[in-house]
Amino acid sequence: MLRMLPDKSEEHPSDSLPLTPEEALALFLGALGNDETKGLLLAVSGGPDSIAMLCLAAAIRAYLPPLAVATVDHRRRPEAAEEAKMVAGLCKELKIPHCTLPWADRPKAPFSQEAARKGRYALLLGHARAIEASHVVTAHTLDDQAETVLMRMASGSGIGGLGAMRPNVKRGHLGHLRPFLDVPKSRVLATCDLHGWHFAQDASNGDERFKRVRLRALMPILAQEGLTPERLGTLAARARRTEDAIDHVVKRMLNECLIRHAPDGGAVLLRSGPFYTEPFEIAMRMLRRSMFAIASSENMDAQIPLAKLEMLMRNLRMAIRDQRPFRSTLAWAVVAHANTLIEVRSAPPRRESNKGNAMQSRDALASAPGVSK
User: Fold this and answer.
1) What does DSSP assign to residue 363?
2) DSSP character at residue 336
């Protein structure tokens, strides 16, 4: 049986109650859903969120898939190596395998938090594959979610972006779980305090050169006006529901207007009518999904600039309305319209000569009859 913690409701407000093992188990299993699992790789930096996640997971390990832990050392702070040793020591006490992953190929020039994030996930996913774990688990909290929503707002994101982080997403063939995504950070800190779990403090979390840090400093002011982390988290959840509903319609519409998909995966041929008659948002998402249908593995996680996609869609709809040829390139795809058909085809490699590009891109729809299902 799981050990029940004493009821602290009289001592703590609800957003500062320590997490119990029972709650942690429900959060882990809720994030996993119906996924088949072979093992969980916990990403533990040594901060309070990941330390709480590690210790709670250790308490409920009998009910979880096999656990392993990895700590990424970005090699940008002298304290990072000591923090990795601290996590390794804790894992030794808990009898959970641990590995420190140094970011050996990090950029020599100053790099952004986004570059560090990409490097971190590349290391974690690579190690998860090496140890045959099916999921990477991170300790993002409700506060992280709220900050992400604000960052997406500031960057002009659409509905998909406002959905921010999801508790379970696919990264290639692996899953990425965020079981604490609805848990306020205050509850995580209360859990560490209750058990006396020691954790490290990353000085960069207070570095105002980073946008996330500046937005974090605004959170108390925004909360006074009602824009609390809970409400931002609710906004994200509703945006995800809306996104999923729209995506369901988009998949159905795209299947209905699909004529052919090239055997090599590099082109799709579609009826153009729905791209004009459907609402703009549906049509634009149909185009975006068509682009990802022909994307290479290197581009599957790429972002298509929303403003450029909107402009392309406006121009394409005018061409369909006027029944005239149209051709444009965006990201890795060539989008062409002629004779009530749309072809989305992989763009030629940039290294080819201009002459070669012109020959390959001329009359984009000419090869359509040769495309088979």
Assistant:
1) T
2) E
- DSSP conformational letter for 155: T
pLDDT value of position 104: 74
Which helix (H) or strand (E) segment holds residue 335: the answer is strand 333-338
Going along the chain, which residue ranges are E strands?
A: 40-43, 67-73, 98-102, 135-137, 168-171, 174-177, 258-261, 267-271, 326-330, 333-338, 341-346
Please return the burial class of 131, using the count of CB atoms within 10 Å of its CB with bins 0-12, 13-18 and 19+: middle
**Which residues neighbour 25 within 8 Å (Cβ) at sequence distance 6 or greater?**
2, 60, 63, 64
What angle separates helix 48-59 from helix 185-195, to the nearest 10 degrees?
A: 60
Per-residue DSSP letter, 356? H
* 175 φ, ψ (degrees, to nearest 5): -100, 155
User: CB neighbours of 205 closer than 8 A, spacing ≥ 6?
Assistant: 213, 216
Which of helix, strand or coil describes residue 211?
Answer: helix
Q: Give the closest residue to 188 by CA, choosing from 373, 369, 75, 20.
A: 20
Model confidence pLDDT, tens digit, residues 338-365: 999 999 999 988 764 444 444 443 344 4
What is the Cα–Cα distance from 185 to 187, expressed in whole angstroms? 5
DSSP 8-state secondary structure symbol assigned to residue 140: -
Q: How far apart are CA 148 and CA 233, in angstroms?
A: 10
Radius of gyration of the chain (CA): 24
Q: Give residue 300's pLDDT.
A: 79
Task: Output phi, psi for 298, to 5 deg.
Answer: -70, -25
In the Cβ-directed half-sphere of 298, how many Cα atoms lie within 13 Å?
3
Q: Is 326 helix (H, G, I), strand (E, B) or coil?
A: strand
Residue 42, sorted as left (phi over 0), alpha (psi -120 to 50) or beta, turns out to be: beta
Is the sign of the CA dihedral 339, 340, 344, 350 positive or negative?
positive
* Cα 230 to Cα 262: distance, rounded to the nearest angstrom: 46
The contacts of residue 228 (CB under 8 Å, 6+ apart) are: 146, 222
Q: What is the pLDDT of residues 207-265, one digit of tens each?
A: 777 888 899 889 999 999 999 999 999 999 999 999 999 999 999 999 999 999 999 88
Apex 255 CA angle, 251 and 257, nearest 5: 120
